[in-house]
Amino acid sequence: MRRHLLLPAALLVLALGTAPAQPPPPAPAPSPVKPTPKADDKPAPAGPKGPTVPEFDVGFVDGSNVKVVVLEAAVGVTTKYGKLTVPLADLKRVELGFRYPDGVEAKLESAVERLAAPAYADREEAAKQVLELKQYAGAILKRAAQDDDAERRRRAAALLATVRKDVPAERVDAKDYDTVETTDFTVRGRLDSPSFKVRTKQFGEAVVRIAEVRQVRAVAVAAVGGEITLDAAVYSKLNWSAWLDTEVDVTANAALDIACTGTIDQWPQEPGRYMSGPAGNGNMSQNQQGNIRVIVPGQQFNPNRGVQQGVVMSGSVVGKIGPNGPPFAVGAAFRLPKSQEAGRLYLQIAPSHWGNDTGTGAYKVKVKTGE
What we know:
This protein is an alpha+beta fold. It folds into three domains: about 55-95 and about 175-220, no CATH class; about 105-170, Leucine-rich Repeat Variant, CATH 1.25.10; about 220-370, Galactose-binding lectin (Jelly Rolls, Sandwich). The chain has helices spanning about 1-20, 105-115, 120-130, 140-145, 150-165, 170, 230-235; strands spanning about 55-60, 65-70, 75-80, 80-85, 90-95, 180, 185-190, 195-200, 205-210, 215-220, 230, 245-250, 255-260, 265, 275, 315-320, 330, 335, 345-350, 360-370. Strand 1 (about 55-60) and strand 2 (about 65-70) form a beta hairpin. Helix 2 packs antiparallel against helix 3 (about 120-130) and helix 4 runs antiparallel to helix 5.
């Protein structure tokens, strides 16, 4: 066995010894020497980032809310002036009207048109058909009650009064059109698609039916342009009349976070002596009339303290949801885990306790909603 192993080895040595000599392989090229960076060298600036994918808060008719990324490039809207295509990046808010079941809108429009038919029997039959669909007739009847034709106007008004007796007011007064607000304009119409695709953190990709949606709102629209500036010279009036429209829409049952920084001078006649931060200067603000209801964060509202008013500090940030909503104290930091109100967020600075509204300076405000 050993001979069989040595023989091939000897033959291999012999073969190598008789083979012509080969030139030695070339030496590897030296690695390039990297220069040592100097202490004052700065890294090259990063290239431009890709476009930010807009997020939206979707409010459903059952009261729930979900934050989503819409997987569509644009939305189509049919208006009385024609069809529009709105890029998703320009979309701020959509208030959805109710959707008619298939064929119902056409039947109601036809019946309302025949309310002014020449024959009395046809007018009576048309009125009967409207009442058969009374759950959906409110919006169309309200428009017909403003019609140029006297007979159609009279009958529509009478039918609307009958419908109001049997159908809940929120149903009768519901809009049958969508309100689409963009960065440049607001228009009434109706979204073309019956659904849209979204991606959520909780459920992944899904399809949302328009008929189940009440509102679609861009998340933190004010943050797109950075911080909100709350100018003391403009929004710290003694009569509480100057409210800043933040252009942020708050959704019911969604969270609201407000953070405020900076200082203002409430007595610029003596610069720097009477300064205030967003939480106020420790003195009770002037002009807290009975209709100004301010709730202090962390404290329950006490209607027996004063004339239905809480305590708000001079120079502090105050907010309200909706033009007629009750004011609430914001201070330097405010969080509402679940808003009971829905509407536009307005901010103001509580008036000076010295009775002047000539403050200078401004607070910087960041608003976050929907989480």
